[in-house]
Write a structure and sequence with these properties.
Elements lengths: L1 H21 L3 E6 H5 L2 H6 L5 E4 L8 E13 L5 H22 L4 E7 L11 E6 L3 E12 L2
Length: 146
């Protein structure tokens, strides 16, 4: 009985360490341009769907409403910056996919939207990194530009 109790105690202790390790939630503000200029981003982002951060793009032909994406990625064995760049690419691709599905050619007024808190910038995006996961949430307006 004591062996089972010790084994259970050890299991619970290891689980609490894992939970507390995941509790890290480091907020990073990183350059948008850096995320958009990686080799992966150049290969995977659609050049026919514009992404405009933090501002309007001027004249809009048609509006399709807003879009929100909340992406997570495995951060294990990556620096916070590496994980954030990867998940930012995933979030940007999701915005472009939404625009294409609606027949649009741009997403404008893009802002970070982590935990539904807007953070608008033309130069930086917000990423939250933990021990095991990193996440980026973006919100923008899907439109057709001339």
């Amino acid at each position: 009985m004591k062996k089972k109790h010790l084994a259970l105690s050890a299991l619970l202790a290891s689980m609490s360490v894992a939970v507390s390790a995941e509790a890290r939630d480091t907020r990073l503000l990183l350059p948008i341009e850096e995320a958009m200029s990686t080799p992966d981003a150049r290969a995977k982002l659609n050049p026919n769907v514009r992404l405009v951060f933090g501002e309007s793009a001027g004249v809009v032909n048609e509006e399709y409403g807003s879009v929100v994406t909340n992406r997570k990625t495995n951060a294990f064995n990556k620096t916070d910056e590496e994980a954030c760049r990867w998940v930012m690419l995933s979030a940007m691709m999701a915005l472009q996919d939404d625009a294409l599905q609606k027949g649009a050619n741009a997403v404008i007024n893009i802002e970070s939207y982590y935990k539904k808190v807007p953070m608008s910038s033309t130069t930086e995006y917000e990423c939250h990194a933990g021990t095991l996961m990193a996440g980026v949430a973006l919100k923008g307006d899907v439109v057709t530009l001339p």
